[in-house]
Write a structure and sequence with these properties.
The complex is a heterodimer of chains A (204) and B (330).
Chain A: H1 2-22, H2 27-44, E1 75-85, H3 88-104, E2 108-113, E3 118-125, E4 135-153, H4 154-166, E5 172-182, H5 200-203
Antiparallel strand pairs in A: 1-4, 1-5, 2-4, 3-4
Helix pairs in contact in A: 1-2
Chain B: H1 2-27, H2 35-41, H3 73-76, H4 110-114, H5 123-133, H6 147-153, E1 156-164, E2 178-183, H7 191-201, E3 205-206, E4 211-216, H8 222-241, H9 264-277, H10 285-293, H11 295-310, H12 314-327
Helix pairs in contact in B: 7-8, 11-12
The chains are: A alpha+beta (204), B alpha+beta (330).
Amino acid sequence: MAAPMTLRRDLFYLTRILGGISHLGPRAVGACSGHRTNNITRSLLPLASSTSFHTTTVFSSTPSSITVTEEADTLFQKVSLLVKGHDRAVLDSYELFATTAAKELNITINKVHEQPKDMDRFTLLKSVHIFKNHRVQYEMRTHYRCIELAHITGCTAQVYLEYVQRNLPEGVAMAVTKTTMEKVPDHILKPLWEDHPIDNELSQ
Amino acid sequence: MASHTRKALLSLGRINASSLGQASRASYATDKPSHASAGKKGFPDRGGRGFVKRPRRPVGDPRTEKMPVDQDWTAVYPSATSFRPNAVPLPLRMGYPMKRGVPPEKKGNLELMKIPNFLHLTPVAIKKHCEALKPFCTEWPSALDADATCDEHFPIKLDSTDYVSAGPSVRNPLARVVHLRVKLSSLNLDDHARKKMLKLIGNKYCKDTDVISVTADSCPLRQQNQDYAMYLLTVLYHESWKTEVWEAEKSVADMEEYSWEDSPSQRNILDVLVRRKAAGEGEGEEVREQLLGRSEVQEYKDSVTRLKNEGESESAVLQYKEAVKKVFNL
């Protein structure tokens, strides 16, 4: 009974894909992959009726409600993303993605510049044993891209950074430097010796 | 009868052939009893193994042929996946051209599959994602548009870094480091407190930008380092307002800036002027004070203070020269 076995195998593969996609990306992506699931079910399982193989959608159609708290939002004067990778073309595409996303979310971009690449070179012996005059040289190139954003609130920064980091391609690393602005705390506004004068002999 | 027997013989022969065939098929123990498949593929000619290939559906046209031009691309590539030549309707070629040829085509191209692609992040897809993310964003307060206003209302700046990379661990020990930067002028300090604060801070103060920078990295967690940096600032502030008993022993060598009063320069100039006048009036404190009150002496005082505090420069030395000429009426 080869035919029903193949169908069942495809179904397991499908559920694994669904499980994989569901916890990837925001809710809008969920809507798209839901559409895609139906296509797959229809194409891969032509013999079975859709009612018999029911794949439950793991993602909800309505987004979760947004809670607004009284807590003051952190303010970031500057957020700088330094992206490192071995391939310059990948970083070019990623820069386009990050800048487009920032523009869509109304985040001011200060500067986008490319740091000069780092070349890590070392020389090794070519042979396992002797032959000192024959060597082989390797190098590792690290390309950089720096995207500086200015004047972001804590909520927006969290949303943008999570979106941008989830879509970080394989083989690319990122370092995010955040500059938080804070008010002078209450205990540094006035010296406490005015209210609580200390005994000078104690300080000796 | 003959026809009968012939038919019988023929049928016998057929049966024999089929039985022979079945017998020979049955002799292979590993043979699967799949009669439907045998009919499609025929007799297997692999010696010794005898497995029968699964029936394959005929390979149809690639999906790219059926794609309309105005399709929803976000449905084709909703998330990050490897490159599929049959799903991407672009005539891509990638690779090094060998033997005066062209780069290899996209079908079965390992280079195209290896490199991370951004087909799931087209501008349309990014717009869709951002539309869904917008409700979670907050706006920057419009009153804080300039850096100067930000510094005025929020003078304390805390710097910290987050790291994202692939590896056996998500943690990065450098992520615990916190830098705190404050402008000294934004703190509520009087003259004595300011001088004491500068002495306490030492080399963590930059004179040009008037900024105190404190780096905290001794604790294992970032929140702990942040708390420690704020604690340090608090302690510095309150300690600098205190006046200890031993601060009364501050000598001229400890002073931060040069003050002309009670300095050798003042004594010298007064001695010189008094000796010049010694013929006429008598000596006394009033003569010295009178001399001090003169404008040339004040100018001399300004020039000497400027030379000592700001260092030697052309204009400062020239000013000193003019002041000396005026004092001695040269």
